[in-house]
Amino acid sequence: MTSTQDQPELTSPDLETSNPATVQDRTERIRRRLERLIGIAATEGNALTALRNGDEIFPAMLTGIRSAEHTVDMMTFVYWKGDIAREFAQALAERARAGVRVRLLLDGFGSRLIEKDLLREMERAGVQVAWFRKPLALSPFKQNHRCHRKVLVVDEQTAFTGGVGIAEEWCGNARTEHEWRDTHVEVRGPAVDGVAAAFAQNWAECHDELFDARDRFVPHRPQGDAVVQVVRGSASFGWQDMQTLIRVMLESAEDRFRLATAYFSPDAYFVELLCATARRGVEVEILLPGPHTDKRVCQLAGQHYYEDLTACGVKIYQYQPTMMHAKVITVDGVAALVGSTNFNRRSLDHDEEIMLAVLEQKFTAILDSHFDEDVAAATLIQEGRWKRRSLLQRAREVAVVPIRRFL
Ligand SMILES: O=P(O)(O)OC[C@H](O)CO
């Protein structure tokens, strides 16, 4: 586990970020742009801990739940099967039995595989379980909008968000294809309120009780040096904050823009923005799943754009050891995004998402060092070789074009 207290070396000595004045200017500019365009103030005094893979993520979340004395709010897209699914259910049920208010919000599509006996056990123990838009009860338009946020808030003081789902696939340490690579973050400080608000926003749609006597509004003492803006993306038609967030990051980048994502199938606008960023001299690096993608159809939709992207100088890496599931962006070594948002149409156009915009050099350096390690286990797409890919591959890419807006 790597906390913001351990500061690795910046990974590229060429970045301008060694100059404190430059760092401050850039950080301030990104903060002001985000605040003006998204309309939510960033908060100071946050401490963030980057958690890499199930071996770090699950123990931290379970420790948080087991330590709860007042409230636990948890929301997830995926709640599937395996020992870890049982462990979470048992931890939540145990806290509910101890008198803690425990609320669990599950996406009606993403969590449809949850084992029914776990649901019964939690409900018997007093866990309030709510479902976000169960597909069969909805019009086709609403079905397409999913709650993709991953949030855990414990005692209003500690929050977690990131890419992880509650299932066997996320256990371990990305050693084999059965242990997915993911990034989550633990947050302490005032930004916890913003994460709690993301939960409350979806809870309000799914449960009769909007608030109760257990709600507390605790003061947050400064916990660290990170400035954090909590950005919520909401299912909508047309433009929404998540697109603005990514756009600000791309347009603010001066030296380097790095993206790790599980599902890369953006629309033409964001492909062009990536290309334009590379064309104006920013090093643009994208890290994507390789042979172990769990959704080949999404991969094909993204591969359709590899030729345009590499022609503009964008470096595309495909991660080899297992499914790359992290959702992380870093900019110029000074700012980072981490949360639930993929670089695809689902996350940018259709789903409820949460992303932390973190303005802190130390935390960004940690995520950059993880990116470096992942790139060392990835292969670079070579422009020339990619252009010579088979006709079959090309046909597959074209075949998914009609459905890529749903991916
Ligand atoms: O949507 P994500 O990024 O949370 O990933 C979960 C996938 O649907 C797993 O197949």
Explain the layout of strands and helices.
Elements: E1 2-3, H1 20-38, E2 43-52, H2 53-66, E3 71-76, H3 83-97, E4 101-107, H4 116-125, E5 128-132, H5 140-143, E6 151-154, E7 158-162, E8 183-188, H6 191-206, E9 226-233, H7 241-252, E10 256-260, E11 264-265, H8 268-279, E12 283-289, H9 296-303, H10 306-311, E13 315-319, E14 328-331, E15 335-339, E16 343-344, H11 345-350, E17 353-359, H12 361-376, E18 378-380, H13 383-387, H14 391-399
Parallel strand pairs: 3-4, 4-5, 10-12, 11-16, 12-13
Antiparallel strand pairs: 1-2, 2-8, 2-9, 3-6, 6-7, 7-8, 9-17, 10-14, 13-18, 14-15, 15-17
Helix pairs in contact: 1-7, 2-3, 3-4, 9-14
SN-glycerol-3-phosphate binds next to loops.
Domain PLD phosphodiesterase: 143-170, 320-347
Biased composition (Polar residues): 1-24
Region (Disordered): 1-26
Observed structural traits:
single chain, 407 residues, alpha+beta, 16-stranded mixed sheet, two-stranded parallel ribbon, 14 helices, disordered N terminus, binds SN-glycerol-3-phosphate
